[in-house]
Amino acid sequence: MADRGSTLGRYPKKTSQIAMSSFLQVANLVGGVLFALTSIIVGVRLLWLARRTGELPELLIGLAFAVAGCIGYFLGIVQVFIELPETLERARPYASRALIAIGSVLIAVAIWKLFYVGKGWAPLSVLTLAVLLIFDVFPIDLGSSEPNFYFRRATQVLLLVPYVWMSLASLRFRKNLLRRWKIGLGDADPLLARRLRLWSYGTGAIAGLFLTVQLVAFVHHYSETRLPEELFVAIWGIACAACMWLAFFGKAPAASEA
Amino acid sequence: MTTSPVFDWTGHAIQDHTGLEALQARGTLRFALKEGGLDPSSVTPHEMSAVIKQLLPKFLKKSGVDDADGVCVRLGIALNTQNFSQQDQPRAAEAFFQRALTPKR
Question: What is the C-alpha separation between B95 and B90, in angstroms, rounded?
Answer without folding.
Answer: 6
